[in-house]
Amino acid sequence: MMGGSDRRRLFLLLAAVGLVMAIALTYALAARKARSDIDRQAEQQLQIIALDLQSMLEKFETLPFALSVHPDLAAALRAPDQPALAGNVNRTLKTVQQQARVAAIYLMDRQGLTIAASNWDEPQNYIGRNFGFRPYFRDALNGSAGRFYGIGSTTAEPGYFIAQPVFAPGQREGGTPLGVLAVKISLNEFERTWSTSDEPIVLVDQHGVVFLGNRPAWQYRSLAPVDSATRARMAATLQYVGKIVEPIASLPTAARRGYDQPVARAVGRLGWQILLFPAQARIARIALLWSGAVALVLLSGMLLVWARHQRRRRLEERQAARTALQQAADDLDRQITLRTGELTQANQDLGDKYARLEHAEQLLRSTQNELVQAGKLAMLGQMAAGVTHELNQPLAAIRAFAENAVTYLARGQADQASANLLHISDASARMGIIIGQLKGFARKSQGKVAVVDLTRSIHASALLLQADFDRHGVSLQIDLDAALQITGDAVRTEQVLINLLRNALDAVEDTPQRQIWLRLERDGDQALVRIRDSGPGIAGEVAAQLFEPFFTTKPSGKGLGLGLAISSSIVQAMRGQLSASNHADGGAEFQLRLPLAKESNER
Ligand code: ADP
């Protein structure tokens, strides 16, 4: 298996190899094309040069022939002892030379001695000079046109020589020449036009010797070594006077390697060749340009492909991320639905539980109500004796007052009688109060929360127990620190107070000092009722069970053990606290705390 990065590396390698190959191929093709283009250009250039040269040489081809038939020439050759004739020829030749713009025109006798020349009046003239050694002379003397290129032995100026035999008038056919007429043409002008070309352009003779060109260092040197026979002939004809023909050392290296061959073209009648060496650098430059362009295009293409590939990958990645996100969101949705279901179920369960709890609480409350009522009735039973005594006393008094009043009336003592009646009224009022209190206590509470005047509740409770206290010789000392109002249930508050006072009464009943203290005070935002007695106090083992239902230390028939349990639950329902402790001076003290009513609280 191939990893992603391995594949990418392979792809990069292949791309690099492909790029290099493409560049190399482009280079080779471009070089070949450039080479052929340059060769063709060179060919064209050479064609122009060759035509130019050819036409120039041809232009003068007929000049020596035309001049050779001039009668003055034969005359001068025939009479070498008459200088006047030669002088005529001199002038004629000079005129023609100047008109035709050739380097020189001169006439030689059969030995090659110059007898007349266009430059006769110049310091370096040909008069008296012998050119018998020159091949053109010999060719012309043999009856045909002579042609030669060489350096002038007199002037040291190179030139092209054309020679024609001079015959006596009418003797041309089959006769022997009287002499030879030669024209020298300078090619310097021609050579100068090549100097602007960067590439080597040279004219070589049939032996490969450079005699004209735009590379001065190559002048009179050969392209290839020249054999000794040719060398000897060159020396004999003074063709390149004083020049040692050596091979060119600095031919372009590429040319020597044989791969940068010069472009060649034959020109003239002497086996010459004109050569042009195309600049290798130009080929390289063109090839480089092409391969650079191709490399640029390919690289841009590759970059484009790469960029598109990257873009596609990024898109794919983004798509994948989006899919993953969607999936995660779906998962979350599913989870939420699941959890919501569970939660709904749990909520419903909780609701059910709450309903059951509510039902249980209702049951409890009704049970508690019944219990409270039962406790109350039990207490009424306990109080019955006291209450009966309390009612009997005024009743007995009323009867006595009434009987006395009858007696007073019979005696006519109306004032006494009315005083008695007033006493009766008082006593019945007292009875009414006691009965009213009893009625109120026995009443079933509505369970309504209201503002309760605690002072009044304390007085009502004390009044209900007054008879019992009196009967047992117990003194109740009430100490109201403040008039306080609480929020709660008046009937139940009295029930608690009566229960506590009743317990205190029970506790002090058999003790020598029968004293009970009730004190009302304010404690923060609560009303605090302390009920203290001079009894034996609460025994240690009793304290823990004090508020438990049906816990009692009293003999059966006297206590049910429900009083404190009910009182405690009443107080808790009113958001208060009920606690018990032993006082430092002996006896028990019960503390009842109830929340103050808003008004009372603000006072
Ligand atoms: P009961 O009065 O019917 O016994 P309670 O619940 O009112 O029921 O009281 C429970 C017990 O608490 C009593 O039996 C008694 O032992 C104890 N007790 C209550 N008040 C006092 C008090 N002031 N002094 C000593 N013991 C008390």
From TrEMBL:
Coiled-coil region(s): 315-377
Q: What is its EC number?
A: 2.7.13.3
| Subcellular location field | Cell membrane
Give the residue spans that cross the bilayer.
287-307
Task: State the source organism's domain of life.
Answer: Bacteria
Q: Which GO terms describe its molecular function?
A: ATP binding
* Keyword list, A-Z: ATP-binding, Cell membrane, Coiled coil, Kinase, Membrane, Nucleotide-binding, Phosphoprotein, Transferase, Transmembrane, Transmembrane helix, Two-component regulatory system
The family database entries (Gene3D superfamilies) matched by this protein are listed as: 1.10.287.130, 6.10.250.3020, Histidine kinase-like ATPase, C-terminal domain (3.30.565.10), PAS domain (3.30.450.20)
What is the topology of this protein in the membrane according to its UniProt annotation?
Multi-pass membrane protein
- Could you tell me which residue ranges the Histidine kinase domain spans? 386-598
The UniProt catalytic activity note for this protein reads: ATP + protein L-histidine = ADP + protein N-phospho-L-histidine
Q: What is its main location?
A: membrane
User: Which PROSITE patterns does its entry note?
Assistant: HIS_KIN
* Stated name of the protein: histidine kinase
Native organism = Actimicrobium antarcticum
